[in-house]
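Researcher: Re-running this chain for the archive, since the previous output was lost when a drive failed. Same request as before.
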Amino acid sequence: MLGVLVNIATVIVGSLIGTLCRKGLPERLTSAIMTGLGLCVLYIGIDGALEGQNTLVLVLSVAIGVLVGTLLDIDGKIHRLGDWVAEKTRRGEQKNAGIGEGFVAGTLLFCVGAMTVVGSLNAGISGDNQTLITKALLDLMSSIVLSATLGIGVIFSSFSVLIIQGGLVLLAQLLQPFLTTYAINEMTCAGSVIIIGLGMNMLGLSKFKVADLMPAIVLAPLLCLIIK
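Model: Regenerated C-alpha cells:
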C-alpha cells in the first residue's frame, strides 16, 4: 500500500498548494488557466480513448453506465454533498464553489488509466510500487494546477484514490485474471471518453453530468468477459 499512500499524500499536498495559489490569482488569470487546463484534459481524454479495441464495449458500457448513473443521480448527489461541505466550511466567507466539480475532475484524472490499474496490480501481487510512485509525482503537479482553477474540492478526490487504488491493491490476486490487457484498454477508453466530456465542460462548451457516466468505467471490463 506504500504507493497508494504516497499517491494520496501527493494529491492532498498538491491540492493545498493549488488552493493557496488560487487565492492570489486574479479572475482573468484563473479563467485563462482553466481554458488551458481544459484543452489539456481534452487531449488526455482523446489520447486515452484511442486505447480502445472494441467499439461495441464502449457503446454498451457508456449507454448502460449513464442509465445507471442517471437513475442513481450520482452527479446530483455528489454536487449536493459538495454544497453541504462548502456550507459547513464557509465560516462567514464567500461560499466555496465547485467542490463537486473538483472532486469529480480529480477522481477521473487521478483514477482512470492504465497506470492506475497496472500499478495497483503490480503493487498488490509483487510489491512493486514504482509505477504508483511515478504516477503520484505526476498527480502532484496535476493536483496543483487543477485545484488552482477548481478549488479545494480536488482534495476530496484523495478518498477516491484510497478506495479505487487501495481496493485494486488489496484485491490484486483476485482481479488479475479478469483485468487483462484487453479489459484495461477498454476501461481506459470508457473513462477517457468521460474525461473528454469533462474537458468540454471546463472549456464551457457543454454541461455534461460527467459523474452520471462513471459507472461505465466499471462496466467496461465486465463486458469484456462477454464480448471478445
